[in-house]
Amino acid sequence: MRSILPSSEIKFSATMKYSLVVVVLGAVGILASMQWTAYSVRRDIGLASQSVFPAALDSQRAGTAFERMTHDYSDAFVMQDKASLARAGAEAATVTASLDRAAKFMTFNPSRQEEILSLRSRVTSLQARSKIDCATGAGTGGTPPSQREMADLSRENKAAEMALETLQNDLAGDFRNELTLIDRLLTVEGILQAVVFVGVIAALFFGIRSLIQATIQKREGEIQQQVHSMQERERNVLRALIDNIPDFMYVKDADSRFIVANAHLAHAAGADSPEKLLGRMDFDFFPRENASDFFEDEQGVMRTGQPLYNREEMMLDSAGNEIQILTTKVPLRDGTGKVIGIAGVGRDITERKKMEIDLREAEQKYRGIFDNAIFGVFQTTPDGRLLSANHAMAVTWGYASVEEGMASAKATDIAGKVYVDPERRKEFQRLMEENGAVQNFEYEAYRKDGGRIWLSMSATAIRENGVVVRYEGMSEDITERRALREQLLQAQKLESVGQLAAGIAHEINTPTQYIGDNVRFLKDAFEDLKSLLASYERRLSASGMGGSSPAALEETAAEGIDVGYLLDEVPKAIDQSLEGVGRVSALVNAMKEFSHPDTREKAPMDLNRAIAATITVARNEWKYVADMETHFDSSLPPVPCHTGEINQVVLNLIVNAAHAIGDAARQGGRQRGTITIETHRCVEWAEIRITDTGTGIPEEVRTRVFDPFFTTKEVGKGTGQGLAIARSVVVDKHGGSLQFETEEGTGTTFIVRLPYDGKALPMTAVAA
Questions:
Q1: Which neighbouring-strand residues pair with 346?
Q2: Are strands 322-333 and 308-316 parallel, antiparallel or unpaired?
Q3: Are 242 and 259 in contact (CB under 8 A)?
Q4: Which of 139-148, 188-197, 534-543, 597-606 has the lowest mean pLDDT?
Q5: Which pTM was predicted?
Q6: Dist. CA 628–CA 614, nearest whole Å
Q7: d(CA 589, CA 609)
């Protein structure tokens, strides 16, 4: 016993010693493995929760904002809605901001970060193109992008949308991978701890078996609880991700039975919750024909192992509404590569398809308006090269089709071969550069057959980044209208001549009468003088033969003739006759000046002289109701004009002033008024002011005074053409302006401005 007992104690002590060493080493190993595992788990949990998951959510936000951006750009383009364009810009900012945040979250994964940044650049470029195309479609009368451009933009939209969906799937996969790695780390931790525990159990098998078993059981419970907690968190994160994605997401087994579904799909299927779909098939929720199509597609994917990407399908929801879906289906495989099911994602593209249809209809509608317009519609480069034109434009120029006209326009010198007067082309370009637009610009042009036509053009300059890239506008053949206007002008002249004829006849008749009276007096005086001379001759002959004395001769010759009276009155009669001849001559010269025949081109005109002649011709119209005052600027240079037409304008304004003063007198005002005509030399134009002290123009008709056939005069006194023709002559033919200042009960001033250089006045001069 003595020999065995010590030995037994030593052995027991050594066992305990070794057991303690093993326990200590095991504890250290356990602590080290726990620390390593805890560190790795915390790191991966941090990556999953603070990087991958937020990045996945931001990619989802980007996808949702991108879909709204596309919808708003479509609204902006189709309905010309500026609010939609602004919303689209805001959604685009949301997309880029979401992708920027996602890229920052994925800094630990350079390849994924590069994928996100590349997609962001792609979306930014697409948004810029969409914004430019939508802005081109808006503008005062604007042309939308071509079908090819729109098709290319649509393809890029779809590609970007697919890339966003792929990014969402990739980030979801990254999140699942992180969770799987966490699970593996926990498994490795359990294995390491189990190995250590086995060693500890072997070392302390006899001494501390129960303690080790209790410790192991306790630790295993903790591990299982931790694993269960991690798995539960993973499931919750994945469920939150799946349920908040606005797409249909599901997983099915090999028999096409649901094993995973999200809330969006459950709602479309008419189920209260995703759990109601589990274990069931499409046949339980959708019409049989619809469900059969889904089943065949899914079985085909599982049978061939080939995924199905971006296929358009039609689905009937629980309310019987048709939903267009863009779906992707991929096979699921187990560890051996065997296909065990299918995963699918579907996106509702019903609104997008509707927008595409609306867009096509809008384009067809616009094309119909463009092609069938009765006026010529065109687009040109700033140097005059034709970009597009409609059928009416081609017909106006004498071409059988738009294609023929476009082919000819490519080789046409616009200024030299289209414009009869190349200077009008320069004038058009000057106005476009100064004002950005022209209204009713008239010019004479050559047709294909060499014939001449008059056109009226209204155009707008289209700018991009402040640079004019093209002109857009409408053109109308006004050849017949211009001829009618010339006829109206001539008729108005004839009307004026008719109105003035009696007055002119009266003005000529008055001096003619006293010229006649004086001539008859001179005739009688001459007869008396002739008799006197004959008497003198007889007396002189008699006195030569010794007759009477000279005194008796003079007394005898003057018997019955008042020689003194004749000597006093004959010179007066001659002077009065000359004065009458002068008045008739002045009136005839004034009529000659007034009726000066116009030439095709403008000629320098002395405005002061022409106005004075017109005043003389119209004297009978104003002399009974008004006094005429003139203040002519002697420094006024000759102004290029069509003399006869400007004379007609001044005549119309003088006659209107006389009528206004006459109306004021009939309404109880003063019986005689004043007409004041002034000329002024301004920097860029000559100015004529014709002021009357008449009734003034009522406020309610001031906007219509230049309208053709509008008149406030009584029937038979006015045709309403005078001011309309005056404005046409001054503004359209001479590039000047015709305005008025008026005050009821006080009078009116008409202001005529004519440019010195014959070019149209700038808008600042017209508004001055």
A1: 248, 327
A2: antiparallel
A3: no
A4: 139-148
A5: 0.38
A6: 12
A7: 11
